[in-house]
């Protein structure tokens, strides 16, 4: 009888151990917040929850008390469409939305973090530290049974003072072009678009790794452990100097945030992205010149 009890205890310990090893939740993460944690705090007024899905989706249904910020509000059309807005515009928009420098901001979307992480990156670029993206987005919040609303939430305008852009998070056309022309460079350029987009043309020397690979089948973000293992398997190391881009560098910001969770520390976003590279006549390659890392379809 004692032996049987001991065996059951050992089995339970093994199961618990396996569950811990396969835990994919984000606890005390830098850039990601679990929906359950949002549900515990958002109604007490200590955080500002941002719906990044766009005005149409927001007006249809959104988390009660969430405000709407469309990523397009933080963009300009020069030198190419979907370029990050200058400090003055970002400062003006965040002030109007009622966000202060001390605000804790949680952002959700419904497209694998693409919209939400674009806002996250913009806020990080201009010095806001306390901002995270909700793992699983709007669906995960809905699954908790949290109150939804169709009424717009408007906060009292505030004073937001943006810092100068953090140059360690961004790279321009000229700097990236110099990297592509340097035969001895150690910089790795990751194209996070779909294989079809990559096949049609890509930045010389870039490696394909679709942003959709960073998601599990249920749409939640891949854990830091799994991100590290998958990228390491493809030849990326935590101390690599990495440049990320897509068509307009929305999807690239999702990859940056999740790689940072996995311990990668030296990454830049090419904000001009493929739109600018193609418009400026940057040297392009095809799949005949550089084979993709993976054939999985991306978004």
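^ structure tokens above, recovered residues below v
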């Amino acid at each position: 009888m004692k032996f049987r009890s001991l065996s059951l205890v050992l089995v339970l310990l093994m199961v618990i151990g396996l569950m811990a090893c396969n835990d994919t939740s984000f606890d005390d993460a830098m850039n990601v917040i679990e929906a359950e944690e949002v549900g515990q705090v958002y109604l007490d007024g200590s955080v500002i929850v941002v719906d990044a899905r766009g005005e149409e989706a927001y007006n249809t249904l959104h988390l009660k008390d969430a405000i709407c910020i469309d990523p397009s509000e933080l963009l300009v059309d020069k030198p190419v469409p979907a370029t990050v807005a200058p400090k003055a515009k970002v400062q003006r928009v965040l002030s109007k939305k009622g966000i202060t420098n001390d605000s804790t901001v949680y952002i959700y979307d419904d497209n694998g973090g693409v919209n939400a992480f674009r806002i996250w990156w913009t806020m990080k670029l201009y010095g806001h530290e306390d901002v995270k993206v909700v793992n699983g987005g709007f669906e995960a919040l809905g699954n908790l049974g949290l109150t939804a609303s169709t009424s717009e939430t408007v906060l009292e305008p505030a004073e937001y003072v943006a810092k100068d852009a953090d140059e360690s998070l961004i790279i321009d056309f000229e700097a990236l072009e110099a990297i592509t022309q340097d035969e001895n460079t150690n910089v790795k350029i990751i194209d996070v678009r779909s294989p079809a987009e990559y096949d049609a043309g890509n930045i010389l020397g870039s490696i394909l790794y679709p942003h959709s690979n960073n998601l599990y089948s249920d749409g939640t973000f891949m854990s830091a452990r799994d991100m590290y293992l998958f990228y390491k398997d493809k030849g990326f190391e935590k101390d690599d100097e990495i440049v990320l881009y897509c068509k307009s560098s929305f999807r690239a910001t999702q990859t940056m945030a999740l790689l940072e969770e996995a311990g990668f520390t030296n990454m830049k976003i090419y904000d001009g992205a493929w739109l600018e590279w193609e418009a400026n006549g940057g040297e392009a390659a095809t799949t005949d010149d550089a084979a993709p890392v993976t054939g999985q379809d991306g978004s």
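DSSP finds eleven helices and 16 strands in the chain.
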